[in-house]
Amino acid sequence: MEPVLNHSWKLSEMDAVNLQQELSLKIVKEDQLTKVSYVAGVDVAYSEHSDKLIAAVVILEASSLRLVESVVVEDTVHFPYIPGLFSFREIPPLLKAFKQIKTPPQLIVCDGQGMAHPRRFGLASHLGVLFDLPTIGCGKTKLLGEFQDPEIKRGSSSPLVDHGEVIGAVLRTQDNVKPIFVSIGHRISLTTACEWILKLSPKYRLPETTRQADQLVNKVLADFQRDQE
DNA sequence: GCGACAG
DNA sequence: ATCTTGTCGC
Description:
Elements: H1 13-23, E1 38-46, E2 52-61, E3 67-76, H2 87-98, E4 107-110, H3 123-131, E5 135-139, E6 157-162, E7 165-171, E8 180-186, H4 190-200, H5 208-227
The structure holds 2 DNA strands.
């Protein structure tokens, strides 16, 4: 559960890019994923007129999709939002929350891209390498790549391609609903990743992991901002 | 120069 | 991400 790397996270943009390139040298391999009892979901919500943020990690039981544990932390923004350097903004608070998790997950679903990234190393890949756990990148919109609209039926998908390389899948999780962008994070194949996302999205467009994490951070942030006034 | 650009 | 009301539909 401990991160294999320990950075200061007080990085310049250039430092961030260099670190990202170092970490991306790690090899992504497929795990069996046969014994996944718990799946984690993560999300961060930001305050508008302050540098405060709320980060959360939720743990769902894989078989029932029931919420079994959640950790919420308050933190401060220490890195700006820059497309391609998203990890450096969200990982510090997420690590802070992960440190308090008592139920270790065997899979993490991230709110953002994994391999579908300019350097093939988005948030999901980054988190996967840090924890050495299987991770899936699951974004609501694309960062880059070209694709054809998948068929209208739930479960349909089409490849997300960048410079001739398949970097992810555009997956329809509900009939006639806007598809989401799935990509390999770490230690998982794209096919297995899509299967998991479908399993985690029995009713809504987004997987339960990100939905639960999302509603949690937004609720806590709302309470936090209410107390400020 | 113009458009794109995870959250 | 965040600012925001109602509205169409199952």
